[in-house]
């Protein structure tokens, strides 16, 4: 059985850019009046705002109530509930919900050179990920939790941390229905069901589901 992909679908940079462009376009429509066109009356403005409100609501998932920025994001999100994974790796057969996830996965097969941290030796597939990781060693923690004061080097880590306070656990295992705060937690958990042990000891060939267990053995 293959290692299922984490349920949560991350927005790609392109999707985020598209959403931001849509928001900018809406703001431009509110404040800019083309030459020769009459300004909208109060009633027309209200009708227009009402339509936008309805359109925004139409991007809400009917299964879990999550709101998405656009139709495309909603379509991708729905694959969490349907289990649809249209993008398949032609090397190992593993399937993904997004083309970007497949692209990242292909690095495993192509043997693309990893980017290594000169502080701890940890490796990353992307230079941008290594750059973000280096903040851990710099001790810089510009993002603080307003509820408990804990500091984080990355904004995304702060957002994940805040779910502890809100109780939001949006990543669900389809095998046992257990929920998790992060996609990584779900992925590790799913190895219980799949039996996947990707970390192999170079001395005795024993395999482990977590890298931490391998390091402990060494």
From TrEMBL:
<dbReference type="GO" id="GO:0005694">
    <property type="term" value="C:chromosome"/>
</dbReference>
<feature type="domain" description="C2H2-type">
    <location>
        <begin position="143"/>
        <end position="170"/>
    </location>
</feature>
<feature type="compositionally biased region" description="Basic and acidic residues">
    <location>
        <begin position="1"/>
        <end position="17"/>
    </location>
</feature>
<keyword id="KW-0479">Metal-binding</keyword>
<dbReference type="Pfam" id="PF00096">
    <property type="entry name" value="zf-C2H2"/>
</dbReference>
<feature type="compositionally biased region" description="Basic and acidic residues">
    <location>
        <begin position="28"/>
        <end position="37"/>
    </location>
</feature>
<dbReference type="GO" id="GO:0008270">
    <property type="term" value="F:zinc ion binding"/>
</dbReference>
<keyword id="KW-0862">Zinc</keyword>
<keyword id="KW-0677">Repeat</keyword>
<keyword id="KW-0863">Zinc-finger</keyword>
<feature type="domain" description="C2H2-type">
    <location>
        <begin position="199"/>
        <end position="218"/>
    </location>
</feature>
<dbReference type="GO" id="GO:0043565">
    <property type="term" value="F:sequence-specific DNA binding"/>
</dbReference>
<feature type="domain" description="C2H2-type">
    <location>
        <begin position="59"/>
        <end position="86"/>
    </location>
</feature>
<protein>
    <submittedName>
        <fullName>Gastrula zinc finger protein XlCGF7.1-like isoform X2</fullName>
    </submittedName>
</protein>
<feature type="region of interest" description="Disordered">
    <location>
        <begin position="1"/>
        <end position="51"/>
    </location>
</feature>
<keyword id="KW-0539">Nucleus</keyword>
<feature type="domain" description="C2H2-type">
    <location>
        <begin position="115"/>
        <end position="142"/>
    </location>
</feature>
<feature type="domain" description="C2H2-type">
    <location>
        <begin position="87"/>
        <end position="114"/>
    </location>
</feature>
<dbReference type="InterPro" id="IPR050331">
    <property type="entry name" value="Zinc_finger"/>
</dbReference>
<dbReference type="InterPro" id="IPR013087">
    <property type="entry name" value="Znf_C2H2_type"/>
</dbReference>
<dbReference type="Pfam" id="PF13465">
    <property type="entry name" value="zf-H2C2_2"/>
</dbReference>
<feature type="domain" description="C2H2-type">
    <location>
        <begin position="171"/>
        <end position="198"/>
    </location>
</feature>
<dbReference type="GO" id="GO:0045893">
    <property type="term" value="P:positive regulation of DNA-templated transcription"/>
</dbReference>
<dbReference type="GO" id="GO:0005634">
    <property type="term" value="C:nucleus"/>
</dbReference>
<feature type="compositionally biased region" description="Acidic residues">
    <location>
        <begin position="18"/>
        <end position="27"/>
    </location>
</feature>
